[in-house]
Model the fold of this input.
Amino acid sequence: MSFDELWADLSDVGRDPRSGGYRRFAWTRADAELREWFAGAAARRGLDVTVDRCGNQWAWWGDPDTGPGIVTGSHLDSVPDGGAFDGPLGVVSAFAAVDALRDKGFQPGRPLGVVNFCDEEGARFGIACAGSRLLTGALAPERALALRDADGVTMADALAAAGRGTDVGRDDETLRRVGAFVELHVEQGRGLADLDAAPVAVASAIWPHGRFRADLPGEANHAGTTRLPDRRDPTLAYARLVLAARDAAERHDAVATCGKVRVEPNGVNAIPSHVTAWVDARGPREADVRAVLGELSSLTERAGGAFVEESWTAETPFDATLRDRLVATLSGVPVLATGAGHDAGILAAQGIPTGMIFVRNPTGVSHSPAEFAERADCLAGVTALTAVLEDLLGAPA
Ligand code: HGY
Ligand code: MN
Ligand code: MN
Done:
Protein backbone atom coordinates (compact mmCIF):
# COMPACT_ATOMS: atom_id res chain seq x y z
CA MET A 1 0.00 0.00 0.00
CA SER A 2 1.54 3.31 -1.08
CA PHE A 3 0.28 4.84 2.15
CA ASP A 4 3.17 3.34 4.16
CA GLU A 5 5.82 4.61 1.76
CA LEU A 6 4.32 8.09 1.61
CA TRP A 7 3.93 8.18 5.38
CA ALA A 8 7.52 7.03 6.00
CA ASP A 9 8.83 9.82 3.73
CA LEU A 10 7.58 12.46 6.17
CA SER A 11 8.39 10.95 9.53
CA ASP A 12 11.70 12.79 10.09
CA VAL A 13 10.89 16.13 8.43
CA GLY A 14 10.84 18.93 11.01
CA ARG A 15 10.85 16.51 13.93
CA ASP A 16 12.32 17.73 17.24
CA PRO A 17 14.33 14.80 18.68
CA ARG A 18 13.91 16.11 22.23
CA SER A 19 10.12 16.14 22.28
CA GLY A 20 9.37 13.85 19.35
CA GLY A 21 6.99 16.55 18.15
CA TYR A 22 7.07 18.47 14.87
CA ARG A 23 8.05 22.08 14.19
CA ARG A 24 6.95 22.57 10.61
CA PHE A 25 6.36 26.30 10.39
CA ALA A 26 5.40 28.20 7.26
CA TRP A 27 8.22 29.26 4.91
CA THR A 28 10.97 27.57 6.92
CA ARG A 29 13.45 24.88 5.84
CA ALA A 30 11.17 22.11 7.12
CA ASP A 31 8.33 23.62 5.10
CA ALA A 32 10.52 23.71 2.01
CA GLU A 33 11.30 20.03 2.47
CA LEU A 34 7.60 19.22 2.78
CA ARG A 35 6.77 21.22 -0.34
CA GLU A 36 9.50 19.42 -2.23
CA TRP A 37 8.08 16.09 -1.06
CA PHE A 38 4.60 17.14 -2.23
CA ALA A 39 5.90 18.10 -5.69
CA GLY A 40 7.86 14.83 -5.92
CA ALA A 41 4.90 12.68 -4.90
CA ALA A 42 2.77 14.46 -7.51
CA ALA A 43 5.39 14.17 -10.24
CA ARG A 44 5.80 10.43 -9.58
CA ARG A 45 2.06 10.13 -10.27
CA GLY A 46 2.15 12.29 -13.39
CA LEU A 47 0.05 14.96 -11.69
CA ASP A 48 0.59 18.58 -12.84
CA VAL A 49 1.65 20.78 -9.93
CA THR A 50 0.67 24.43 -9.81
CA VAL A 51 1.28 26.93 -7.00
CA ASP A 52 -1.32 29.66 -6.55
CA ARG A 53 -0.71 33.34 -5.65
CA CYS A 54 -0.61 32.51 -1.95
CA GLY A 55 1.77 29.56 -2.12
CA ASN A 56 -0.77 26.75 -1.82
CA GLN A 57 0.29 23.71 -3.90
CA TRP A 58 -2.20 21.93 -6.22
CA ALA A 59 -1.50 18.63 -8.00
CA TRP A 60 -3.96 17.87 -10.82
CA TRP A 61 -5.04 14.62 -12.50
CA GLY A 62 -6.72 16.07 -15.59
CA ASP A 63 -6.87 19.66 -16.82
CA PRO A 64 -8.61 21.80 -14.16
CA ASP A 65 -9.42 24.43 -16.76
CA THR A 66 -11.79 22.07 -18.60
CA GLY A 67 -14.22 22.48 -15.71
CA PRO A 68 -14.34 22.58 -11.90
CA GLY A 69 -12.71 19.52 -10.35
CA ILE A 70 -13.00 17.56 -7.15
CA VAL A 71 -10.22 18.48 -4.71
CA THR A 72 -8.92 16.64 -1.67
CA GLY A 73 -5.85 17.15 0.52
CA SER A 74 -5.06 19.20 3.63
CA HIS A 75 -1.94 20.93 5.08
CA LEU A 76 1.59 19.83 6.02
CA ASP A 77 2.58 22.50 8.54
CA SER A 78 2.24 21.97 12.31
CA VAL A 79 1.84 23.70 15.64
CA PRO A 80 4.96 23.82 17.86
CA ASP A 81 5.61 20.25 19.01
CA GLY A 82 2.69 19.09 16.88
CA GLY A 83 1.75 15.52 16.10
CA ALA A 84 2.43 13.54 12.92
CA PHE A 85 -1.17 13.22 11.76
CA ASP A 86 -2.77 16.69 11.92
CA GLY A 87 -2.59 17.74 8.27
CA PRO A 88 -0.20 15.20 6.71
CA LEU A 89 -2.72 12.36 7.11
CA GLY A 90 -5.02 14.21 4.70
CA VAL A 91 -2.31 14.83 2.10
CA VAL A 92 -0.80 11.34 2.25
CA SER A 93 -4.27 9.77 2.11
CA ALA A 94 -5.07 11.89 -0.95
CA PHE A 95 -2.07 10.58 -2.88
CA ALA A 96 -2.80 7.03 -1.68
CA ALA A 97 -6.39 7.41 -2.90
CA VAL A 98 -5.13 8.50 -6.34
CA ASP A 99 -3.00 5.32 -6.41
CA ALA A 100 -5.97 3.18 -5.37
CA LEU A 101 -8.20 4.71 -8.08
CA ARG A 102 -5.51 4.05 -10.67
CA ASP A 103 -4.95 0.49 -9.42
CA LYS A 104 -8.61 -0.23 -10.16
CA GLY A 105 -8.36 1.34 -13.61
CA PHE A 106 -10.68 4.20 -12.69
CA GLN A 107 -10.81 7.12 -15.10
CA PRO A 108 -12.14 10.32 -13.51
CA GLY A 109 -15.01 12.04 -15.30
CA ARG A 110 -13.66 15.42 -14.17
CA PRO A 111 -10.32 16.76 -12.86
CA LEU A 112 -9.06 15.52 -9.50
CA GLY A 113 -6.88 17.86 -7.44
CA VAL A 114 -4.68 17.21 -4.40
CA VAL A 115 -3.94 20.35 -2.38
CA ASN A 116 -1.35 21.30 0.25
CA PHE A 117 -2.65 24.47 1.92
CA CYS A 118 0.24 26.50 3.32
CA ASP A 119 0.36 27.95 6.83
CA GLU A 120 -2.82 26.30 8.14
CA GLU A 121 -1.76 26.34 11.80
CA GLY A 122 -0.59 29.95 11.86
CA ALA A 123 2.16 28.80 14.24
CA ARG A 124 4.73 31.29 12.93
CA PHE A 125 2.67 34.39 12.08
CA GLY A 126 -0.36 33.89 14.30
CA ILE A 127 -3.27 33.63 11.81
CA ALA A 128 -4.65 30.12 11.26
CA CYS A 129 -5.50 28.98 7.71
CA ALA A 130 -3.45 31.88 6.35
CA GLY A 131 -2.98 30.18 2.95
CA SER A 132 -6.66 29.47 2.39
CA ARG A 133 -7.78 32.78 3.92
CA LEU A 134 -5.48 34.69 1.56
CA LEU A 135 -6.62 32.54 -1.38
CA THR A 136 -10.30 33.33 -0.72
CA GLY A 137 -9.78 36.97 0.26
CA ALA A 138 -10.74 36.31 3.90
CA LEU A 139 -7.35 37.71 4.99
CA ALA A 140 -6.12 41.02 3.59
CA PRO A 141 -2.71 40.71 1.87
CA GLU A 142 -1.29 43.84 3.50
CA ARG A 143 -2.25 42.56 6.95
CA ALA A 144 -0.75 39.13 6.29
CA LEU A 145 2.50 40.44 4.80
CA ALA A 146 3.09 42.69 7.83
CA LEU A 147 2.60 39.89 10.40
CA ARG A 148 5.80 39.18 12.32
CA ASP A 149 7.12 35.95 13.80
CA ALA A 150 8.80 35.65 17.21
CA ASP A 151 12.07 36.93 15.71
CA GLY A 152 10.40 39.95 14.16
CA VAL A 153 10.59 38.54 10.62
CA THR A 154 7.62 39.67 8.52
CA MET A 155 5.66 37.22 6.37
CA ALA A 156 6.78 39.31 3.38
CA ASP A 157 10.43 38.74 4.24
CA ALA A 158 9.82 35.04 4.96
CA LEU A 159 8.15 34.64 1.57
CA ALA A 160 11.05 36.41 -0.15
CA ALA A 161 13.56 34.22 1.70
CA ALA A 162 11.61 31.18 0.50
CA GLY A 163 11.92 32.46 -3.05
CA ARG A 164 8.29 33.50 -3.28
CA GLY A 165 6.84 36.82 -4.36
CA THR A 166 4.58 38.89 -2.17
CA ASP A 167 1.78 39.21 -4.71
CA VAL A 168 -0.53 37.22 -2.44
CA GLY A 169 -4.29 37.67 -2.47
CA ARG A 170 -7.60 36.27 -3.68
CA ASP A 171 -6.99 33.97 -6.63
CA ASP A 172 -10.19 33.50 -8.60
CA GLU A 173 -8.52 31.44 -11.31
CA THR A 174 -7.59 28.84 -8.69
CA LEU A 175 -10.94 29.03 -6.90
CA ARG A 176 -12.82 28.44 -10.17
CA ARG A 177 -11.06 25.08 -10.45
CA VAL A 178 -12.57 23.80 -7.19
CA GLY A 179 -16.01 22.29 -7.78
CA ALA A 180 -15.99 20.60 -4.38
CA PHE A 181 -13.44 19.97 -1.64
CA VAL A 182 -13.27 16.93 0.67
CA GLU A 183 -10.61 17.06 3.40
CA LEU A 184 -9.62 13.92 5.28
CA HIS A 185 -8.26 14.71 8.75
CA VAL A 186 -7.36 12.84 11.90
CA GLU A 187 -10.13 13.43 14.41
CA GLN A 188 -9.01 15.90 17.09
CA GLY A 189 -11.17 14.55 19.87
CA ARG A 190 -12.64 11.30 21.13
CA GLY A 191 -15.93 11.28 19.23
CA LEU A 192 -15.21 8.14 17.21
CA ALA A 193 -13.21 6.45 19.97
CA ASP A 194 -16.11 6.80 22.42
CA LEU A 195 -18.69 5.72 19.84
CA ASP A 196 -16.62 2.65 19.05
CA ALA A 197 -18.75 2.30 15.91
CA ALA A 198 -16.60 2.99 12.84
CA PRO A 199 -13.03 4.10 12.03
CA VAL A 200 -14.23 7.12 10.07
CA ALA A 201 -16.87 9.82 10.43
CA VAL A 202 -18.22 12.66 8.33
CA ALA A 203 -18.11 16.26 9.63
CA SER A 204 -21.26 18.29 10.13
CA ALA A 205 -19.80 21.69 11.14
CA ILE A 206 -16.88 23.60 12.65
CA TRP A 207 -17.57 25.44 15.89
CA PRO A 208 -17.21 29.23 16.03
CA HIS A 209 -13.74 30.03 17.31
CA GLY A 210 -11.33 32.91 17.68
CA ARG A 211 -7.85 34.00 18.72
CA PHE A 212 -7.53 37.15 20.86
CA ARG A 213 -4.51 39.01 22.20
CA ALA A 214 -4.43 40.60 25.67
CA ASP A 215 -1.88 43.42 25.97
CA LEU A 216 -1.16 43.84 29.69
CA PRO A 217 1.04 46.83 30.60
CA GLY A 218 3.20 46.94 33.73
CA GLU A 219 6.16 48.91 35.02
CA ALA A 220 9.63 47.48 34.87
CA ASN A 221 11.34 47.52 38.24
CA HIS A 222 13.62 45.62 40.57
CA ALA A 223 12.18 42.32 41.82
CA GLY A 224 14.02 42.63 45.11
CA THR A 225 13.93 46.26 46.14
CA THR A 226 10.52 47.46 44.94
CA ARG A 227 7.96 47.51 47.79
CA LEU A 228 4.77 45.58 47.00
CA PRO A 229 2.47 48.63 47.04
CA ASP A 230 4.78 50.32 44.53
CA ARG A 231 4.65 47.52 41.99
CA ARG A 232 2.73 47.45 38.69
CA ASP A 233 3.26 43.77 37.93
CA PRO A 234 1.33 42.69 34.76
CA THR A 235 1.74 39.00 35.58
CA LEU A 236 -0.99 39.41 38.21
CA ALA A 237 -3.48 40.39 35.51
CA TYR A 238 -2.17 37.54 33.35
CA ALA A 239 -2.75 35.07 36.16
CA ARG A 240 -6.29 36.37 36.64
CA LEU A 241 -6.89 36.13 32.87
CA VAL A 242 -5.81 32.49 32.73
CA LEU A 243 -8.07 31.48 35.60
CA ALA A 244 -10.96 33.62 34.32
CA ALA A 245 -10.74 32.00 30.88
CA ARG A 246 -11.26 28.53 32.36
CA ASP A 247 -13.95 29.69 34.78
CA ALA A 248 -15.94 31.55 32.10
CA ALA A 249 -15.62 28.64 29.67
CA GLU A 250 -17.05 26.25 32.27
CA ARG A 251 -19.99 28.57 32.95
CA HIS A 252 -20.74 29.16 29.26
CA ASP A 253 -20.39 25.64 27.81
CA ALA A 254 -17.30 26.70 25.86
CA VAL A 255 -13.57 25.98 25.87
CA ALA A 256 -10.73 28.48 26.27
CA THR A 257 -7.04 28.48 26.98
CA CYS A 258 -4.11 30.89 27.14
CA GLY A 259 -1.54 28.72 25.43
CA LYS A 260 0.91 31.42 24.43
CA VAL A 261 2.40 34.24 26.50
CA ARG A 262 5.25 36.70 26.08
CA VAL A 263 6.75 38.35 29.17
CA GLU A 264 9.01 41.36 28.62
CA PRO A 265 11.85 41.64 29.43
CA ASN A 266 11.49 38.08 30.78
CA GLY A 267 14.12 38.32 33.51
CA VAL A 268 13.92 36.38 36.77
CA ASN A 269 14.80 39.42 38.91
CA ALA A 270 12.85 42.03 36.96
CA ILE A 271 9.19 42.99 37.37
CA PRO A 272 7.90 42.80 33.78
CA SER A 273 7.18 45.94 31.81
CA HIS A 274 4.61 44.13 29.69
CA VAL A 275 2.85 40.81 29.28
CA THR A 276 1.21 39.72 26.02
CA ALA A 277 -1.16 36.76 26.31
CA TRP A 278 -3.14 35.00 23.60
CA VAL A 279 -6.57 33.46 24.22
CA ASP A 280 -8.08 30.71 22.06
CA ALA A 281 -11.83 30.44 22.72
CA ARG A 282 -14.36 28.15 21.02
CA GLY A 283 -17.70 26.47 21.56
CA PRO A 284 -20.81 25.03 19.93
CA ARG A 285 -22.68 28.38 20.13
CA GLU A 286 -21.28 31.76 19.18
CA ALA A 287 -23.24 33.59 21.90
CA ASP A 288 -21.54 31.51 24.57
CA VAL A 289 -18.07 32.07 23.14
CA ARG A 290 -18.79 35.81 22.90
CA ALA A 291 -19.87 35.78 26.58
CA VAL A 292 -16.52 34.27 27.56
CA LEU A 293 -14.62 36.80 25.47
CA GLY A 294 -16.66 39.67 26.90
CA GLU A 295 -15.63 38.75 30.43
CA LEU A 296 -11.97 38.46 29.45
CA SER A 297 -12.08 41.75 27.58
CA SER A 298 -13.51 43.53 30.66
CA LEU A 299 -10.89 41.95 32.92
CA THR A 300 -8.13 43.08 30.55
CA GLU A 301 -9.49 46.64 30.41
CA ARG A 302 -9.75 46.80 34.20
CA ALA A 303 -6.05 45.95 34.24
CA GLY A 304 -5.37 48.91 31.97
CA GLY A 305 -4.79 46.68 28.96
CA ALA A 306 -6.31 46.03 25.53
CA PHE A 307 -8.09 42.85 24.32
CA VAL A 308 -7.68 42.58 20.55
CA GLU A 309 -9.28 40.12 18.11
CA GLU A 310 -6.60 38.51 15.93
CA SER A 311 -8.87 36.10 14.05
CA TRP A 312 -12.48 34.97 14.21
CA THR A 313 -14.22 32.12 12.41
CA ALA A 314 -18.01 31.96 12.56
CA GLU A 315 -19.74 28.61 12.95
CA THR A 316 -19.26 26.81 9.64
CA PRO A 317 -21.82 24.17 8.70
CA PHE A 318 -20.67 21.92 5.85
CA ASP A 319 -22.76 21.56 2.69
CA ALA A 320 -25.69 19.31 3.74
CA THR A 321 -26.11 17.71 0.31
CA LEU A 322 -22.43 16.79 0.11
CA ARG A 323 -22.43 15.70 3.76
CA ASP A 324 -25.36 13.32 3.17
CA ARG A 325 -23.75 12.03 -0.02
CA LEU A 326 -20.53 11.22 1.88
CA VAL A 327 -22.53 9.44 4.59
CA ALA A 328 -24.43 7.42 1.97
CA THR A 329 -21.23 6.46 0.14
CA LEU A 330 -19.71 5.38 3.46
CA SER A 331 -22.81 3.37 4.43
CA GLY A 332 -23.99 5.45 7.33
CA VAL A 333 -20.90 6.40 9.33
CA PRO A 334 -21.32 8.80 12.28
CA VAL A 335 -21.62 12.56 11.69
CA LEU A 336 -19.61 14.74 14.10
CA ALA A 337 -19.07 18.46 14.66
CA THR A 338 -15.59 19.66 15.51
CA GLY A 339 -13.97 22.41 17.57
CA ALA A 340 -10.93 22.36 15.32
CA GLY A 341 -10.52 24.86 12.49
CA HIS A 342 -9.64 23.64 9.01
CA ASP A 343 -9.03 24.98 5.51
CA ALA A 344 -12.22 23.12 4.62
CA GLY A 345 -14.04 25.61 6.83
CA ILE A 346 -12.52 28.56 4.97
CA LEU A 347 -13.56 27.17 1.58
CA ALA A 348 -17.03 26.29 2.90
CA ALA A 349 -17.44 29.88 4.10
CA GLN A 350 -16.78 30.92 0.48
CA GLY A 351 -19.69 28.82 -0.73
CA ILE A 352 -17.58 26.01 -2.18
CA PRO A 353 -19.34 22.65 -1.48
CA THR A 354 -17.05 21.19 1.16
CA GLY A 355 -16.98 18.12 3.36
CA MET A 356 -14.63 16.40 5.79
CA ILE A 357 -13.86 12.81 6.66
CA PHE A 358 -12.45 12.18 10.15
CA VAL A 359 -10.20 9.21 10.94
CA ARG A 360 -10.50 7.73 14.42
CA ASN A 361 -8.04 9.04 17.02
CA PRO A 362 -8.01 6.46 19.86
CA THR A 363 -6.92 8.95 22.52
CA GLY A 364 -8.39 12.13 21.03
CA VAL A 365 -5.08 13.85 21.74
CA SER A 366 -3.91 16.34 19.07
CA HIS A 367 -1.52 19.30 18.80
CA SER A 368 0.86 17.09 20.77
CA PRO A 369 3.67 14.60 20.01
CA ALA A 370 1.31 11.99 21.44
CA GLU A 371 -1.19 12.44 18.58
CA PHE A 372 -1.86 9.00 17.08
CA ALA A 373 -4.07 6.95 14.78
CA GLU A 374 -3.90 3.21 14.22
CA ARG A 375 -2.52 2.15 10.82
CA ALA A 376 -5.64 0.07 10.19
CA ASP A 377 -7.80 3.17 10.78
CA CYS A 378 -5.57 5.25 8.50
CA LEU A 379 -5.99 2.64 5.76
CA ALA A 380 -9.74 2.65 6.38
CA GLY A 381 -9.55 6.40 5.84
CA VAL A 382 -7.84 5.90 2.49
CA THR A 383 -10.49 3.37 1.48
CA ALA A 384 -13.24 5.77 2.50
CA LEU A 385 -11.64 8.69 0.64
CA THR A 386 -11.17 6.52 -2.44
CA ALA A 387 -14.84 5.53 -2.42
CA VAL A 388 -15.94 9.14 -1.97
CA LEU A 389 -13.72 10.39 -4.79
CA GLU A 390 -14.89 7.61 -7.11
CA ASP A 391 -18.47 8.59 -6.44
CA LEU A 392 -17.90 12.32 -6.89
CA LEU A 393 -15.60 11.99 -9.91
CA GLY A 394 -17.99 9.71 -11.71
CA ALA A 395 -20.80 12.24 -11.43
CA PRO A 396 -21.26 14.91 -14.11
CA ALA A 397 -19.90 18.35 -13.18
O1 HGY B 1 -6.48 25.60 15.63
C1 HGY B 1 -7.08 24.77 14.97
O2 HGY B 1 -8.19 24.41 15.28
C2 HGY B 1 -6.44 24.15 13.75
O3 HGY B 1 -5.65 23.09 14.17
N1 HGY B 1 -5.67 25.11 13.01
MN1 MN C 1 -4.09 21.67 13.87
MN1 MN D 1 -5.21 20.40 10.77
